[in-house]
Amino acid sequence: MAVSPGPGLFGRYLARHNMRMADIPLWAAGMFVALLWSLPFLWMISTSFKRSQDVMTRDIEWLPRVVTFDNYIKVFEFPVIRWGINSLVQATVSTALCVFFGAMAGYALARMRFPGNGFLFAIFIASLMIPAEVYVIPLLLAVIKIGWASSYQALILPTVANVFSVYIFRQFFLGFPRELEEAARMDGAGPFRIFWLVALPLARAPAIAATVIIFTLNWNNFLWPLLVTFDESMKTLPVGIAQFAPVVGSHTQLEGFAVSMAAVTILSVPSLIVFFVLQKYFIHGISQGSVKS
C-alpha cells in the first residue's frame, strides 16, 4: 500500500507561518524591498570600521579591508556621552509626557461628546501640514525671553504635544468596549477614574506604538535642539555629531566619511534597540490604531 508523502519542509514552513503559495510573490517582493532599504544602513556600519583611505575606492567593497576602531575612538574624544545623556533625558521624558497626554486627549476625543469635537480633531490633523520652520523662531524667542535657553525644560516641553500620539489613541478608543465604561460608571467612577483605571491599562498596544514613534522622533530631533542649546554641555547627540560631517570640496572630505559614519552609527543604536524590543507590540498597536472595530 503506497503512502502519500507529507507536505515537506517547505509546506510545513508555509503552514507554520499561515502562508499560501499565492503569498510567496508578495513575500519575495517585500523581502527585496527590505533588502534595498537595509543596504544604506549596512554600508554605514561597514564604512564606520574602514580606514579613511579605504572609503572611496574604485570598486564597491561591502566589507572593510582592515577592521579599525579608530573612527569610534575619534568620536569619543568629544563629549559624546554627555550629549547622549542629554538626548536620553530629553527623548525619554518628552516621550512619556507625550504618550500620557496623547492618551488623555485621544480618549476625550473618542469617548466624550462636546461641541466642536470633530472640528478640534480636524485642527489637530491639519496641524501636521504646518512645518516646524514656521513657528520655531517665535517659540525660540519666547524661550529665550523667559530664560529657558540651554535647559532641559526648553528641550522637553515644546516637543510634548504631538498629534501622532493623539491620533493613535483616538482610533483605538473609538473601538473600546462601552460595556467596561458603563460597568465602572455604575460603580461610581468618574470620567478620569474610568480613563485611569479602565481605559489606559487596556491601551498597552497603542501606547507602545506611540512610544516607538515619538521616541524615535524626539531622539532624532535636530532643528529645535540646535537653536535652543547655546552651551556645549547641553547639546543633544544629533546636534553634537553634526560637526563630524565631512567638509565637501576639501581634502578633509575623504578623511571625514569614516568618522561621520561611526558617529551616525552611534546615534542610530538607541532607536534600533527600542524598535526591535517593542516591534511585536508596535505592529499590533499600529493595526489597532488604524482599523476601527
Written account of the structure:
The protein is an all-alpha fold. It has two domains: 1-37, no CATH class; 71-290, MetI-like fold. The protein has helices at 8-16, 24-48, 70-75, 80-111, 117-126, 132-145, 152-156, 163-174, 178-186, 191-199, 204-219, 223-228, 237-241, 252-290. Helix 2 (24-48) packs antiparallel against helix 14, helix 4 packs across helix 11 and helix 11 (204-219) packs antiparallel against helix 14 (252-290). It is flat, with a radius of gyration of 25 Å. The model is unreliable at 1-6 and 289-293 (pLDDT under 50).
Number of strands: 0
Alpha-carbon Rg, integer: 25 Å
Helical residue percent band: 55-70%
Number of helices: 14
| Secondary-structure-derived class | mainly alpha
From N to C, what is the helix and strand string?
Answer: HHHHHHHHHHHHHH
CATH architecture of the largest domain: Orthogonal Bundle
Q: What is the fourth-level CATH superfamily of the largest domain?
A: MetI-like
CATH class of the largest domain: Mainly Alpha
| Count of separate structural domains | 2
As an assembly, this protein is single chain
- In whole angstroms, the N-to-C terminal distance is 52 Å
Main beta sheet strand tally, sense and closure: none
Instruction: Give the uncertain stretches in residue-range form.
Output: 1-6, 289-293
Strand content: under 5%
**CATH fold type of the largest domain:** MetI-like fold
Mean pLDDT: 85
Shape: flat
